[in-house]
């Protein structure tokens, strides 16, 4: 019977390494989108590539068809040239045009929805250079930025919170990552002033993530209040027995019960007895 000791040890080592990787935040594929804004931008890029490829293929076939009419056939060589041209077009337009990664100075420009999408794309481009723990926070920020973007779409551009969001999303978050990337790689894990650069980056991004969540909740308070008022109105209008009980003055609802209606009860006479 063959000895499977080495194979078992290899499997155990691989399992331990996988567990360690997951504890450190898992693996992150460069192509993964951290939010809907960045995913939408990349989807539009792929649609553009598909249109360019379709146009190139149409041009190739029209050209070969014209050549076939003029030359009375293109022969085997023409067919091979057509196939090679289509393959070349597929290679070119599967890689180009590239998704444009916004520059740091462009993050605060445009309307709120564009600002959020650009910041998500910028964060995705920085993620491969970040430690696993910080990359996890970046993924969380992507979800939070999506929620923040939805709230920004419903408020006026002159709202005081817009400037706060621009500073938070377009300045503080990228500045934190930029400061980290300025540190040489071999120094990022060395302890300095009570912590490593990796630890300080993760801590700072976590605080910024909490701040993004706080701003989103504050912007959503108006909608939550409107929903609560509407829900209360529907309870009064269509509440059924609960509504009647409330109108009668149930102490558990209003705390001030209405007096019992004064209805005279007839007393039987002696003759009726």
Written description of the protein model:
The protein is about 65% helix and about 0% strand. With about 270 residues, it is an all-alpha fold. Mean pLDDT is about 80; it is low at about 1-10 and about 15-30.
Outline the fold blueprint.
Layout: H1 5-23, H2 36-71, H3 75-93, H4 112-126, H5 132-153, H6 160-181, H7 197-238, H8 241-248
- Approximately how much beta-strand content do the residues carry? under 5%
Which whole number gives the mean pLDDT? 79
Order of helices and strands: HHHHHHHH
Number of helices: 8
Name the shape in a single word: flat
Segments where pLDDT lies below 50 for 5+ residues? 1-8, 14-30
Please state the structural category. Answer: mainly alpha
Instruction: Give the N-to-C terminal Cα separation.
Output: 110 Å
- Gyration radius, to the nearest Å? 33 Å
Q: How many β-strand stretches? A: 0
Portion of residues in helices?
A: 55-70%
Key terms for this structure?
mainly alpha; 273 residues
Structure in a nutshell:
With 273 residues, this protein is an all-alpha fold. Helix content is 67%, strand content 0%. Among the domains are: 36-93, no CATH class; 104-232.
